[in-house]
Design a protein that fits this description.
With 496 residues, the protein is of the alpha+beta class. The protein has 17 helices and 16 strands. Helix 9 packs across helix 10.
Length: 496
């Protein structure tokens, strides 16, 4: 089976670039008012592609759909049924919400948007260079837009200069996508690598299992003539190819609560509070990992500073003496290979067969390469220094947080696994009674007890920090399909 080069003109630019040089952005959530008018607007929308340019564009426009949105456009049920079950059921599904940790004040019924009548149909993402976003919004949301859509919400963003609201450097670690498809993804990896198969992020290409993720394929006929061919089914046209699933979650961050809590735990000592905050995160505020281990890692790119922040694993810190086992970055990316302890010979055979032989806590952590995501989020709200965060909040204190955005080809195996099995799990890597120190909901889990603790392993001893309050609240969320450009035109066709 031949593997074709990626048609970058058919890939939305968000996947490849993230639009970092365009610091102004707004994410507009809409519902279809008129299917005919919406299809007309979508067919003519100037979508920004991933094609290489001499310089970044001044503005960018990207489009994605929820399952309800695909239905509202009149896409046939046979096509809709071939999308993933996670996408079709949606983030607010009751069983899914429980697995994601969206309970109590994070429950979908408490959201500002994304539940029942506030589930959007379409996400339109607008990015611009400084001073140009207003004009882009005006051009985009004109008469044709108003005939086509009803707006649910506009999610504004802030440019905090690569620092997230808690004050830590953001966007430090991203996987490197194998755009050229040079590596055989089906082969085992002894060591952690930052290079990930293209099919983990774009549908229609081989993933880390060497397989093609299921997606909608249609017969070759007049209405589908503009779609790319399916690489693994040449007699079919591929609706999914060059597209991805986009996860959007609005996360409100209690910046004052975070710094006031760690400062109380540190007895008011500023340096001790900063050190405790770093242990919760796993990095210093400057973005430096707590791990002392440094070695070359395949797929880690960038300048020396970027490489220094990413070329590390936890292989020599299994007990968490340097970076706590439950720290946020360790839960989000355990940085392991396919085989704990890098076995050879008989030990390798045991590992292949899933037989005992490695450390207990490592047996509980799945190989990372099957659970990577591309993060494309933006912060919102004004920045707040630590000194300001320690002061009482004014009555008109603005909300701060993150519009979390990630791209993945398999929502269940990628985003949902990271969120449910690693971040929200109270038994991650053999721990008990604690969830993610930043994102955790702090609620009791049936049969597992509380989740409001954090363990610091040091010098053979363990210090237990108890009573962590929630620092992050979910305000809304949804699963979207970010189609390839040709698939976008197909979905918006006058008759499918």
């Amino acid at each position: 089976m031949s593997r074709d080069a990626v048609d970058l003109d058919d890939v939305q630019g968000l996947v490849r670039f993230g639009h970092g040089p365009l610091p102004e952005a707004v994410f507009v959530l809409v519902r279809v008012k008129s299917a005919e008018a919406a299809r007309s607007w979508l067919r003519s929308a100037p979508v920004t592609t991933a094609a290489t340019r001499p310089s970044p564009p001044a503005t960018a426009l990207q489009i994605a759909f929820t399952a309800q949105g695909v239905e509202a456009l009149g896409v046939p049920a046979s096509v809709r049924a071939a999308f993933s079950s996670e996408f079709r059921e949606g983030m607010a599904d009751a069983n899914r919400a429980r697995r994601l940790g969206d309970v109590a004040w994070n429950a979908p019924a408490q959201w500002d948007w994304g539940y029942e009548t506030t589930v959007p149909h379409v996400l339109v993402m607008l990015f611009a260079k400084p001073g140009q976003l207003g004009a882009l919004v005006d051009r985009t949301c004109g008469d044709a837009w108003r005939q086509a859509f009803d707006e649910v919400r506009r999610l504004g963003t802030s440019d905090l200069d690569a620092v997230e609201p808690f004050g830590f450097r953001d966007g430090v670690s991203q996987p490197t996508v194998d755009w050229e498809q040079r590596r055989d993804p089906s082969s085992s990896r002894h060591h952690y690598s930052n290079e990930v198969a293209l099919g983990e992020f774009l549908l229609g290409y081989r993933n880390e299992y060497g397989k093609y993720t299921d997606r909608p394929l249609v017969d070759a006929e007049a209405s589908s003539a503009g779609l790319p061919d399916a690489e693994d089914a040449p007699d079919k046209k591929d609706v999914g190819r060059n597209g991805s699933y986009l996860v959007l979650r609005q996360l409100r961050q209690d910046v004052r609560g975070f710094w006031q809590h760690v400062t109380r735990e540190a007895g008011g000592d500023e340096k001790a509070a900063d050190a405790l905050a770093a242990r919760l995160v796993g990095r210093t505020r400057a973005g430096d990992p707590l791990s002392h281990e440094r070695r070359a890692i395949a797929g880690v790119l960038g300048d020396p500073e970027e490489r220094r922040r990413n070329e590390f694993t936890f292989d020599n810190d299994r007990a968490g003496a340097v970076c706590p086992v439950g720290a946020h970055i360790r839960r989000a990316n355990p940085r392991n290979g396919d085989y704990v302890d890098h076995p050879t010979g008989v030990a390798r055979l045991f590992a292949d067969l899933g037989l005992p032989g490695s450390a207990f806590q490592d047996d509980l952590v799945s190989a990372v390469r099957f659970h990577r995501i591309l993060r494309r989020g933006r912060e919102y709200g004004p920045s707040l220094t630590v000194a300001e965060a320690l002061q009482p909040a004014p009555t008109d204190d603005p909300e701060r947080g993150l519009h979390f955005v990630c791209l993945n080809a398999n929502i269940s195996r990628q985003f949902e696994f990271i969120q449910g099995a690693w971040l929200m799990s109270s038994t991650f890597a053999g721990l008990t009674g604690e969830g993610d120190p930043l994102l955790g909901h702090r609620q009791e889990i049936a049969g597992a007890g509380g989740t409001d603790a954090f363990t610091i392993q040091r010098d053979g001893l363990r210090k237990r920090v108890s009573g962590l309050p929630p620092f992050v609240t979910v305000r809304g969320g949804a699963y979207f399909f970010l189609p390839g450009v040709r698939a976008l035109r197909f979905l918006a066709g006058p008759s499918i």
